[in-house]
From TrEMBL:
Stored InterPro entries: Redoxin, Thioredoxin-like_sf, Thioredoxin_domain, Thioredoxin_ResA/DsbE_sf
Domain of life: Bacteria
Protein name: TlpA family protein disulfide reductase
Pfam families reported in the protein's UniProt record: Redoxin (PF08534)
Coiled-coil residue spans: none
PANTHER family: CHROMOSOME UNDETERMINED SCAFFOLD_47, WHOLE GENOME SHOTGUN SEQUENCE (PTHR42852:SF18), THIOL:DISULFIDE INTERCHANGE PROTEIN DSBE (PTHR42852)
Transmembrane segments: none
Database matches in SUPFAM superfamilies: Thioredoxin-like (SSF52833)
Location of the Thioredoxin domain: 28-168
Length: 170
């Protein structure tokens, strides 16, 4: 009899814990804050992770020598153009091995409409989980928390649904 009561209490406890964990994630909690970083933009100005708060932000680590990065860039531009007026921003972070002159040339010739940063020392990529594979993209909510990480080209239809959901949040 005692073992049946203990078993029922254990099941109730496990169920309560599972419900609590589910609610924690369903309510938007549990997202990891974006690492504190300083981005050096092409114009020489600086932007910090703190500056990204208040807007849904896509942080894209890329390189001009990365075929997938170059291939996804028109979709990155289209995503930025579609949602920018609704409170969305993109920050493209060029990897440390990418020559700055290549990054500047690519940015100008492709007329990238969003901010581009140079990670000359590799410190930003290291802070963001030691990013080595490109493209690696992070989607941040308005609170500066990482909601999704993509390695390789994102599924843009899924990404757009997630951006719309995040833009609708307070």
């Amino acid at each position: 009899m005692a073992s049946k009561t203990s078993r029922n209490l254990l099941i109730a406890g496990v169920t309560a814990a599972a419900v609590a964990v589910g609610a924690y994630f369903a309510l938007g909690a549990g997202h990891e804050s974006a690492p504190q970083s300083t981005f050096v933009l092409l114009d020489g100005s600086r932007q910090t992770t703190q500056d990204l708060k208040g807007r849904v932000t896509l942080v894209n680590f890329w390189a001009t020598s990365c075929v997938t990065c170059v291939g996804e860039m028109p979709k990155m531009i289209a995503t930025y153009d579609k949602y920018h007026d609704k409170g969305f921003q993109t920050l493209a972070v060029a990897m440390s091995y990418d020559p700055p002159s290549y990054v500047v040339n690519y940015t100008q010739t492709r007329k990238l409409p969003f901010k581009v940063a140079l990670d000359n020392t590799g410190a930003v990529a290291k802070a963001w989980g030691d990013v080595q594979l490109t493209p690696t993209t992070y989607l941040l909510n308005k609170h500066g928390e990482i909601v999704k990480r993509y390695v390789g080209e994102p599924d843009f239809a899924e990404l757009h649904q997630l951006i719309e959901k995040l833009l609708a949040e307070a």
